[in-house]
Amino acid sequence: MRAVIDALHSPLFRRALLEATLVGVLAGVVGVHVAMRRMSFFVVALSHGTFPGVVAASLVGVSLFAGGVAAAALMIVAVVLVGRTRALDDTSSIGVVLAGAFAVGVLMLSASPGQSRDLSAFLVGQVLAVTNQDIVLTVVVGVALLGVLTLLHKELVGAAFDPAAFSALGYSTIALDVVVMAVAAVALVTAIPAVGTILAVALLTVPAVAARQCTDRLVLLTPIAALIGGASAVVGLAASAAFGIAGGAAIALTTVAAFAICFLGRRVLTFYAVPRVGTARSQE
Length: 284
Hints:
By secondary structure, the chain is an all-alpha fold. The chain is built from 15 helices and no strands. Helix 3 (40-49) runs parallel beside helix 6 and helix 13 (218-243) crosses helix 14 (247-273).
């Protein structure tokens, strides 16, 4: 605790704590829609697909956020186009685009070896290096994404649970899927300064899955996922300060620990809630 208290005196740590918490809450909310559509593999692919955009943005000296969003947009278009040809299923088309996009990024990086050390921070995060501009960007992007999810909440949830019925009502389920892909892509790119392109997958998937172990009610699923995401950021950074370990990795492992607690807790409660045959007969 002394190490954590000492870290709180540092403005770098306080900025990192605020940024990681904001990103954790945002990713938890977005992750609910990712989980409902079973898009976890797409998020993994997206984390690799943004890599060439980050590399290109760093090489030309523009915003890494802009480069990551541009690469993610190209990847979404490629996945949709390849998937609509019917030559490949959705999982295969995502895998093809993942391999191609990440290979392009590695080739670009190999042409500029001097950039490798700097760019490694954007693969696994460098949360203590976040700036005030990163925090402002996270707030602005977070408000915009939450606004989109709130505005289209009924359509997104309905299409996730019964796409055939929503298609019959005249809704474009493909368009709604693209909206979720775009929201997930922007949220992932926003998380790059805190946890990097690779570890951002943990925040966009695990809190929502952990929340699902805590409740079956949709109205509670989103706030619980946001709480787990934000709390994981706080606990992970505290562990990072206490033990001198990488912040992004500590946050990612904390989300996994939260899932394990929720998963085991549900199994224990279910075990004791269901009456056992032997006990029931002995009572009779």
